[in-house]
């Protein structure tokens, strides 16, 4: 079964951001950091040497990944991290830690239709968070917001993704009523699962100027090349976006479809082997594991 993890692209501040997030949530830890090599051969962007190629970490027991990718892509509210909080103290700790240096999108208040305080913010790095005093154990859930040209497509996206990444399914859907004609009948909030992991989705309206970007992708670690080969053509909808295992789907959401073995090849203690694998990877769109194994072996 593929393993799916939200993947965050930072402007060369991934370690700093992860440290901040660990202060915001209990049961958080840094699991592993893999860095861009400094040698032997130069990188396409030499200033990346020593920075974070991949970091794996947990917040409130939920796994995420990150890298230092530079300024190419920026976070938008189209993907946020929705956090359930069991107590007012948990909510206050998370809100005060994350909002410092950031901006408030929706103040932390009681809202009609929600039991418990709710707030939406963008932290100092631009990443969006929704925090809710739900009384449930603390949990971090990726939330996809379909806006502008994608508004009204949240339900179709959930059905499409659920058909690819079992065990999956839509658990609950709440819809907008007729009081907001532009939104009526579309998804106000939904919960679904992909590869056993919880997600949320909503339609956010046709008038927003933002949308999905590569700053948040869904990293799918496949056990075999056959899994990579099966998922790739079903998900990829923009040939120009295909690069090094990255793709964009029909809804504009970015994915990384990679064999699990790739992380081991790039974490080899021999810098020459890592460099050969890296150079081979940079030539690829869909990842071919056999070619990477040949490059690793020399």
The gist of it:
This protein is of the alpha+beta class.
How would you sum up this structure, described in words?
- The protein is α+β, with helices and mostly antiparallel strands.
- The chain folds into two domains: 3-74 and 214-297, 2,3-Dihydroxybiphenyl 1,2-Dioxygenase, domain 1 (Roll), CATH 3.10.180; 79-205, Signal recognition particle alu RNA binding heterodimer, srp9/1.
- It is 23% helix and 35% strand.
- It contains seven helices and 15 strands.
- The chain has helices spanning 14-24, 88-99, 154-162, 225-235, 261-266, 271-282, 289-297; strands at residues 3-10, 29-35, 52-59, 62-68, 79-85, 103-109, 118-122, 128-133, 139-147, 169-175, 187-194, 197-205, 216-222, 246-248, 254-259.
- The strands form two sheets. An eight-stranded mixed beta sheet has the order 6-7-8-5-9-12-11-10, covered by helices on one side. The protein has a seven-stranded mixed beta sheet with strand order 2-3-4-1-13-15-14.
- The longest helix has 12 residues, at 88-99.
- The radius of gyration is 20 Å and the shape is globular.
- The two termini are 30 Å apart.
Estimate the mean pLDDT confidence: 95
Helicity level:
10-25%
Give the number of domains: 2
Q: How many separate helices?
A: 7
Structural class of the secondary structure composition?
alpha+beta
| Number of beta-strand segments | 15
Main sheet overview: 8 strands, mixed
CATH-assigned fold name of the largest domain? 2,3-Dihydroxybiphenyl 1,2-Dioxygenase, domain 1
Question: Which CATH architecture of the largest domain would you pick?
Answer: Roll
Shape, per Cα inertia axes: globular
Beta content comes to: 25-35%
Compressed to H and E, one letter per element, the order equals EHEEEEHEEEEHEEEEHEEHHH
Cα-to-Cα separation, first versus last residue: 30 Å
Order of strands across the main sheet: 6-7-8-5-9-12-11-10
**What is the rounded Rg?**
20 Å
Instruction: Give the full name of the CATH homologous superfamily of the largest domain.
Output: 2,3-Dihydroxybiphenyl 1,2-Dioxygenase, domain 1
CATH class of the largest domain: Alpha Beta
Low-confidence segments, given as residue ranges, are: none
């Amino acid at each position: 079964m593929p393993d799916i993890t939200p993947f965050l692209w930072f402007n060369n501040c991934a370690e700093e951001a992860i440290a901040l997030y660990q202060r915001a949530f209990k049961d958080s830890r840094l699991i592993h950091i893999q860095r861009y090599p400094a040698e032997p051969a130069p990188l396409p962007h030499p200033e990346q040497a020593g920075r974070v190629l991949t970091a794996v970490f947990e917040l409130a027991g939920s796994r995420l990944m990150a890298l230092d990718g530079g300024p190419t892509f920026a976070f938008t509210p189209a993907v946020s991290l929705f956090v359930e909080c069991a107590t007012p103290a948990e909510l206050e700790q998370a809100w005060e830690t994350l909002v410092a240096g950031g901006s408030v999108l929706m103040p932390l208040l009681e809202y009609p239709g929600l039991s418990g305080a709710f707030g939406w913010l963008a932290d100092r790095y631009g990443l969006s968070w929704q925090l809710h005093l739900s009384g449930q154990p603390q949990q971090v859930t990726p939330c996809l917001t379909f806006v502008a040209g994608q508004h009204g497509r949240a339900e179709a996206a959930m059905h499409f993704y659920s058909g690819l990444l079992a065990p999956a399914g839509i658990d609950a859907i709440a819809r907008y009523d007729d009081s907001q004609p532009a939104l009526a009948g579309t998804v106000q909030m939904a919960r679904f699962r992909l590869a056993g992991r919880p997600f949320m989705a909503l339609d956010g309206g046709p008038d927003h100027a933002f949308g999905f970007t590569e700053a948040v992708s869904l990293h799918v670690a496949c056990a075999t090349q056959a899994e990579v080969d099966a998922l790739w053509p079903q998900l990829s909808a923009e040939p120009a976006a295909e690069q090094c295992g990255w793709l964009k789907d029909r809804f504009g959401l970015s994915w990384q479809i990679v064999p699990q073995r790739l992380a081991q090849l790039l974490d080899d203690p021999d810098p020459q082997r890592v460099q050969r694998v890296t150079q081979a990877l940079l030539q690829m769109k869909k990842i071919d594991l056999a070619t990477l194994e040949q490059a690793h072996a020399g």
